[in-house]
Known about the structure:
The complex is a heterodimer.
Chain A: E1 4-8, H1 13-18, E2 24-33, H2 36-47, E3 60-62, H3 90-95, E4 100-103, H4 109-118, E5 121-124, H5 130-134, E6 137-144, E7 153-167, H6 174-182
Parallel strand pairs in A: 1-2, 2-3, 3-4, 4-5
Antiparallel strand pairs in A: 2-7, 5-7, 6-7
Chain B: E1 2-5, H1 6-22, H2 26-38, H3 42-61, E2 71-79, E3 82-85, H4 89-103, E4 127-133, E5 138-145, H5 147-150, E6 154-158, H6 163-178, E7 186-193, H7 196-206, H8 218-232, E8 247-255, E9 262-269, E10 276-279
Parallel strand pairs in B: 1-3, 2-4, 7-8
Antiparallel strand pairs in B: 2-5, 5-10, 6-9, 7-9
Helix pairs in contact in B: 1-4, 2-3, 6-8
Amino acid sequence: MMAEYKLTVPLDTDVVSKLKAGDRVTLTGDVYTARDAAHKRLVDLLGEGKELPMPLQGQVIYYVGPSPTPPGKAIGSAGPTTSYRMDPYTPALIEKGLKGMIGKGERSEPVVDAMKEHGAVYFAATGGAAALISKRITKAEIIAYEDLGSEAIRKLTVEDFPVIVAQDSQGGNIYKEGQKKYAR
Amino acid sequence: MREISSAKITEEVARLCMESNFELGEDVWRALEEGLKKEESPVGREILSQILENADIAKSERMPICQDTGLAVVFVELGQDVHITGGDLEAAIDGGVKKGYTEGYLRKSSLGDPLERVNTGDNTPAVIHIRIVPGDRLRLCVVPKGGGAENMSRIAMLKPADGVEGVKQFVVDSVRTASANPCPPIVVGVGIGGTFELCAFNAKKALLREIGSTHPDPFYAGLEKELLVKVNDTGIGPQGLGGRITALAVHIEVAACHIASLPVAVNLNCHAARHKEVIL
């Protein structure tokens, strides 16, 4: 049975371990944005043993490159991008304490292994519901890599941001389970 | 010779860039509403409701439907009796893309070089396809094409012996492999025949046909219908979370081909199947 949770970020391992694929979650607190280009820089920094521009312990990364902010709004349209492109970088971030990721589409085996080993969860937001999702973001601030434009790292303050647990820390996977159920 | 000014073209392209990103086409809207009625999966219905609510917000607040406002693909049909004044056609289109993406607060996703990967800052250059046709009109169709669905597109040079069954298998396999990534429910554009590049071009062109329309050739109309059933039977569903509505439509474009060839291309579009056109 799917459960519903209202969670605040940062997340701890106990909370993460309760979450099961298919659960509905709303997130409140600060999350960080990063896409391909920012991930590459973060993982390069880790490789050089240098400090990252944001904390990772207990944090959530949202895979999004928002459209420009029009006057009078907190942010432009801001739906998730496809997550598999971040897979080459993700295990290194999970090892350093990252607890949650928000994106769309299935994650690969090495990411799932890291999620199981360190206790992390992968959430799906609705791809292409970007104007709707932007209503749950109350503040956006660029904290690093401004030169990357929409791919810069932003700190987003979110309120009751709706997501679905897509892949959990025990290997549960709504993509596999859901698709099997409706295939003919 | 009818004259159309390049300034007019720039103005129209800018408007089409914005409108296509803010307003979902009525055919897509209808198909999503029908999908919501048919979807058996509760999570699938939740997703479809969100997509429809999102389209409402985008339209009323003039916000992009999706943050990925795409590369601007522009299909041009230029009447051979039209004379463009005041500058060249491609520069006029790029000028419109720059203006539309800047004034509309649309995301700039274009990198000047695929390996250097530095953003051009104004979403140019557009991807422009020009065809010279009879007459004295100019048709401009702007198609903002997002990266997520484009990345899941494929082409195969099948053997003639593979026949229609090979084509069906390739289309369904492409959708299955793409799974959640192209943001289902998708529109599936299929090119069959032609050369390598014409086949891919036709797969993209197929995405522009109105959803709900049927192929003029009864054989291909039947094949589209059959493929839509097969694609929906994958169970991928809205956002790949499982459900019966994986695709809103399958559209096929065919072209003559070589005796040795059977090319097939699949170009996927996310549910934000955006395109707007004008005839000047």
